Predict the 3D structure of the following.
Amino acid sequence: MSAQQPTRIEPLPEFKPFETFLYQAADLRSPFRPMDSVRPDRQMIQEGGSGIRPDLQRPREPLEEAPLDALRMVGTLEQFGESWALVRMNDGTIHRVQPGNYAGHNHGKITRITEDRVELTEIIPDGLGGWQERQASLALSE
């Protein structure tokens, strides 16, 4: 058996001492509570937040039975200066809509129709007992 030459072992790297940090947050806001400037007061929540709310008394329209991602814009029509969009549901039914009609589960009111999209304003819960508006659209599918 042949003996191997001893090899030199590298020394261990030198570790820097760990600097400790003392967290003192007794006088700061808890990160688990909402900031006062963002959190509405209880009265505002009970009154419906910012005043935006869906009209739950109006009759629902056929396109409100499906979520927006199940609807497809398939074309537009123009007649007597009015623009209409053609929207297809998953079941193949095509509906003619114009600004003022509703679509989707989130009270989406159609605000504008262009050649390649239908723009809507949805009213969604804000998580604090009120409602907020959100812009959405249906793009023309080919």
Notes: Confidence is low (pLDDT under 50) at residues 37-48. The two ends are 78 Å apart (CA to CA). Residues 42-139 form a domain with the SH3 type barrels. fold (CATH 2.30.30.830). Residues 118 and 139 are 7 Å apart (CA to CA).
